[in-house]
Amino acid sequence: MKDTDIKRLLYTHLLCICSIILSIFIPSFFLENFSILETHLTWLCICSVSVTAVNLVLYLVVKPNASSKRSSLSFKVTRFVKCCVYFLMSCFTFHVIFVLYGAPLIELVLETFLFAVTLSTFTTVPCLCLLGPNIKAWLRVFSRNGVTSVWENSLQITTISSFVGAWLGAFPIPLDWERPWQKKVSVGRGGHILLNITWLMRGGLTIQTRAPGHDSPRCWRL
Amino acid sequence: MSKMQKISVLLFLAWVSFLFYAGIALFTGGFLLTRLELSNHSSCREPPGPGSLPWGSRGEPGACWMASRFSRVVLVLIDALRFDFAQPQRSHVPGEPPVSLPFLGKLGSLQRILEIQPHHARLYQSKAHPPTTTMQRLKALTTGSLPTFIDAGSNFASYAIVEDNLIKQLTNAGRRVVFMGDDTWKDLFPGAFSQAFFFPSFNVRDLHTVDNGILEHLYPTMDSGEWDVLIAHFLGVDHCGHKHGPYHPEMAKKLSQMDQVIQELVERLENDTLLVVIGDHGMTMSGDHGGDSELEISAALFLYSPAALFPSAPPEEPEVIPQISLVPTLALLLGLPIPFGNIGEVIAELFSEVEDSQPHFSALAQASALHLNAQQVSRFLYTYSAAAQDLQVKELHRLQNLFSKASADYQRLLQSPQRAEAALQTVIPELQQFLRGVQAMCLESWARFSLIRMAVGAAILAAACFLCLLVSQWATSPGFCFHRLLLIPMAWGLAGAIVCAGLLATTELKLDPVILGAMAAVGSLLPFLWKASADWGSKRPLAALLPIPGPVLLLLLIRFAAFFSDSFVVAEARATPFLLGSLILLLVVRLHWEGRLLPPKLLTIPRLGFSAPTGPPRHNGVQALGLGVGLLLCIRLAGLFHRCPEETPACRSSPWLSPLASMVGGRAKNLWYGACVGALVALLAAVRLWLRRYGDLKSPEPPVLFVRWGLPVMVLGTAAYWALASGADEAPPRLRALVAGASVVLPRAVAGLAASGLMLLLWRPVTVLVKAATGAPKSRTVLAPFSGPPTSQADLDYVVPQIYRHMQEEFRGRLERAKPQRPLTVAARQLGSVYSAAVVTALTLLAFPLLLLHAERISLVFLLLFLQSFLLLHLLAAGIPITTPGPFTVPWQAVSAWALMATQTFYSTGHQPVFPAIHWHAAFVGFPEGHGSSTWLPALLVGANTFASHLLFAVGCPLLLLWPFLCESQGPQKRRQPPGNEAEEEEEPLMEMRLRDVPHHFNAALLQLGLKYLFVLGIQILACALAASVLRRHLMVWKVFAPKFIFEAVGFIVSSVGLFLGIALVMRVDGAVNSWFRQLVLAQQR
User: Fold this and answer.
1) Is Endoplasmic reticulum there in the keyword field (chain A) (predicted)?
2) How far apart are CA B967 and CA B960, in angstroms?
């Protein structure tokens, strides 16, 4: 049971990473002038959409929490609507937090908001898929002894590392190296998306390759 | 016993601060070279010394100390033109090509001229003096002195040169000076040029803007003939060095371009014109400069004139001369007086008579130029040594004797020309010896980094930080002894100082207080390091040696590392709120993570049914979240009051930093004025509300009365002063005198009120209703099963809590009799917040005069400051468990957050760590007419304005320890809310009295708090010092790192003094509370 879970976990993470990498290369076949540096906003949209899609598909295929007792259509619809509302709310919350952290209020509002959306897709969407629109469960998972399964453990680690990655992305902003990527990035605090993504990928990769071995003791203890 | 402990804690803190000061002073002595700037000027009418001027030049029109040889000069300054860039390439083996490097042999036109016209041109290797940064070099090349980083006496607000200089002499003589190139000259010589084309020098990556701009204007200007002196400052070579280094092919292109320029200029020169091509400094192998390595200080100097200049052909190897030799040479060649502060030596060769073949006259001409020069230098030395003491006295005497001898020889030579030839052979070397001696002496004291001092200073700082870390850990261990802690280092320090003094006395050197202090510091640090290494030997776990928790350690590391990057130092104003926000979110998340935010039933998992709640949640989750968001909001709002550093041209400073008087438009001004006064009133109301909640404003004690009546008067005074200051120009003429008088009196009155309030607070710090307490207890017996007078400390320890309880009951009884409905809280809560009430009152009293020194709209920031520190304290208190009966600790995250907030407030009150950003107008608050000759008072006012946040946060530091005890009161209060609990035997919260009950732990906690705060600040100053010494070759060292170090050092001193005062205040309150209890005991005995 645990071993199969861990295996499935590994595959889902690999798929997620693949989707990010593909979102860099695939669009250049369809769109003209596409590159990460020049049209970073488009790329961000594509990236978050693909990550969301992969998450949803995986959720439908793998079904890590197969405990939904009621399965009527109306229940599903309300659940879906609730999820959408939660997602939007998390986007706006992140946006507000970024502004509080120093992002400009009016200029670059699009960049800031897109960054919020991206961060939401990396953090809120997996939470919604795994735990559903259930704030109490979320709070439980993100506290010291609240994790009950491998899935929740991986969720905890990836979400926290996403936040840390986003946080680390702020550091190159003040540097005056005048590299082209930095010019894009240093437009504002909201603009440090690119770096965040790379950090997300890197952070995700290390953790996900490490996750199976690392998590097993805790699983056994539980 | 307890008093001894207090004294030893305070002394220990003072001693640790002294260690830091010693380290800072020693480092500063090695790193920051200082010199006094004299404002005297040379003039044509005043010859530098007695004796007839040579050649009877006084009669000639336009002639000055010496007749002019050239009427026009073209000065081409190629930034960072190293000597070997211009050196002619000779292949040692004929037929074999010389070594090919991008920077070698590219200035071919120089070589051609030297070969074709050997009597017209000369190449020198000029030695620049450190610091080899462009601005300092430009100063040197125009004043002839040795500029240091801080030229004392200069005006910090601008970079304009106040010393006598060539440009000033030129404009005084009515010459037209045309400038083109680097815009640094605009700051140095504002308005001095008859025509100027400035180009921005900021972007080091831009190789061409400045050069192309010059080339566009150079030839047309030259052809127009409307100039006497033409200065062109090319930056391309320097920028190419910074960007690519000298070994890049781009350097070859740049040098070839310069070669082209020189060639074209030479073709356009006329007979009366001198061409000077000079590099202001060199560059290292990597293309940087600023320090004193051979490659940095060797620069090229090339002179050429269409008329013959030199009697002989150039030597095989170019002569080596100091760079500042150019200044007296140019001055005399152009017929100007030599600038007053010049210490350069004329290039004697240039003053020989070329046409006259007789060597005798040539030598005489050289001697007279040298003599003039020597007279001027001697006059400068005399004036300087009268004004400053930093030159060596012995050497000074020796040089003066040398000069008088040479001068006498020269006079004799003039009077008896028959024995001239033999005399000339002695006079010229004597004069040269004098001039070189002066230069060497000045160089010794003005222009040399002392690496040993820097290293030892940094080492002392590091050791002091380590000491703070170590002792703050020992302080909480159970068997901690205060006396041994203090006496041993004092003894060792004294021993070190005495040994050092003895050593210095035996070697007959001058006693330098800095070195003496450093020796004392080292001496007293040694036993600690010894003890620490002994502990290390006994294999303590490493975790115990590094007690800082991971995230906070990471934060401190980031902060430490950020001082090593000029970008991060420049961006610190934005980075600090970011780090502070991160720390705050981390605190909130951590509270949640540890399960203190939510009731445990939410977090337990129903199916598995296990839970490990870590104590009952003291805080509502929503409340903690609200605190966090409120803090972030406050920080963001405070960030709106932001002043931009000069280094970021794209950034715009907040318009709200300017005083209201500068605003036009009555309506907006009135609105802003209303907002400012509103902020004042809100601040006052908040403080009073807080005091009413935690203490009692009804007590008749003088400090309480002062808070009730004095503070509103201060607010009124401040508001009235602002009204006058912002509308002074609009006042009707009749009232001018009144307004002027009021704007003198009002600020002084507010400051005086604040001072008297502080005095009252120190005099009677306990604000408890004593009368009610002493009057009552006669009717009852003391509950203690104890009789007889309390003789020992143990007795007191036993009796005092009982009395305290008893007193509460007394109050209850009295209150119940008087007003049966009222809850029973008054007296106990007063006593429970006695320490923090004193600290908060002191902070408020300090804040008002400081507020007055700032621009009006900064009052909003002060309001935010109080608000956000209140929120932070609440948030921190939620995470600190109260461990009765001690030991009490203040966690590292609290101290780091406090220090970060101090830095953040420094920036959000409109400051930046650079000299031009200092708020000079603060010196005129209360003194609109200026201060006359006194300097300490304006310095104090400006310092108080600049370091207001450091001071406030340091004084408020003890609140970090006290606040968790204050928050204790909230729990029981809530439970008392339902009616009908009168019968419940509820213990009144002891709050801060818990601290008083265990004086040993209380003192240890205060010591620990102080040391932790000093550690966090010490890390910053250590990082600044290390950054300044490691990066002393960096392009930005004098613009970013050195000012940052100075500000950080002064900020540290202010903070440590504030911390000392804050802790001393708490101890004073503690002493007063103790004596109050003792009086109670005595009253009950009777």
Assistant:
1) yes
2) 12
**3-state SS class at B465:** helix
pLDDT for B955 beyond 90: yes
Question: B632 contacts in A (CB within 8 Å)?
Answer: 97, 100-101
C-alpha distances in Å from residue B138, one per residue of B165, B201, B835, B1028, B1036 = 11, 14, 57, 22, 16
Between positions 155 and 184 of A, the ones with CB within 8 A of B are: 167, 170, 173-176, 178
User: Is this structure's pTM higher than 0.80?
Assistant: no
Q: CB–CB of A143 and B577 under 8 A? A: no
Strand B177-182 with B229-234, pairing:
parallel
Q: Does B651 touch chain A (CB under 8 A)?
A: no
Q: Is the ipTM of this complex over 0.90?
A: no
Please give the share of chain A, as a percent, with pLDDT higher than 70: 70
pLDDT more than 90, % of chain B: 30
In total, the C-beta contacts within 8 angstroms joining chain A to chain B are 61
Cβ within 8 Å of residue B156, ≥6 positions away: B915, B916, B918
For residue B539, the SS3 value is coil
Chain B residues close to A174, C-beta within 8 Å: 567-568, 570-571, 574-575
Query: Is the confidence at residue A68, as pLDDT, over 60?
Result: no
Check if B654 contacts A (Cβ < 8 Å). Answer: no
Tell me, what DSSP letter sits at residue B231?
E
CB < 8 Å to B603, chain A: 139-140, 143, 145-146
* pLDDT tens figures, B694-734: 766 667 777 788 888 889 999 999 999 988 888 766 667 77
Name residue B235's amino acid. Answer: L
- Overall average pLDDT of the B975-995 stretch: 49
Structure confidence by residue, pLDDT tens digits, B782-819: 343 444 444 455 555 555 666 666 666 665 555 544 44
Measured between alpha carbons, how far is residue B2 from residues B10, B531, B793 in Å?
12, 26, 10
Which of B793, B856, B848 lies closest to B998 in space, CA to CA? Answer: B793
Q: Is the pLDDT of residue B925 over 80?
A: yes
CB-CB under 8 Å, B595 with A140: no
Q: Which chain A residue lies closest to B569 (C-alpha atoms)?
A: A174
Q: Which amino acid is at B22?
A: A
Cβ atoms B890, B961 nearer than 8 A: yes
User: Are the Cβ atoms of A99 and B577 closer than 8 angstroms?
Assistant: no
- Shortest CA distance to B407 belongs to which of B385, B439, B379, B443? B379
Please tell me which of A22-31, A156-165, B578-587 the model is most confident about, judged by mean pLDDT.
B578-587
What tens digit of pLDDT does each residue of B220-248 get?
999 998 999 999 999 999 888 888 888 88
The pLDDT value recorded for residue B626 is: 87
Nearest chain B residue to A142 by CA: give it. B593
Listed in sequence order, the residues at least 6 apart from B232 whose beta carbon sits closer than 8 Å to its beta carbon are B74, B75, B76, B77, B179, B180, B181, B214, B218
Quick check: A221 contacting B, CB < 8 Å? no
Specify whether the CB–CB gap between B359 and B419 falls below 8 A. no
Q: Which carries the bigger pLDDT value, residue B60 or residue A4?
A: A4
CB-based contact A102 B592, cutoff 8 Å:
no
DSSP notation for B786-823 = --S---SHHHHHHHHHHHHHHHHHHHHHHHHHH-TTS-
Q: Decide if B520 contacts B499 (C-beta within 8 A).
A: no
Tell me how many degrees the CA angle B720-B723-B727 measures, rounded to the nearest 5.
150
Question: Residue B592 and residue A139: Cβ atoms within 8 Å?
Answer: yes
- Within an 8 Å CB–CB cutoff, is residue B578 touching chain A? yes
Cβ-defined contact of A100 to B629 (cutoff 8 Å): yes
Confidence class for position B509, pLDDT limits 50, 70, 90: low
B1040 contact residues in A (CB cutoff 8 A)? none
- % of chain B surpassing 70 pLDDT: 81
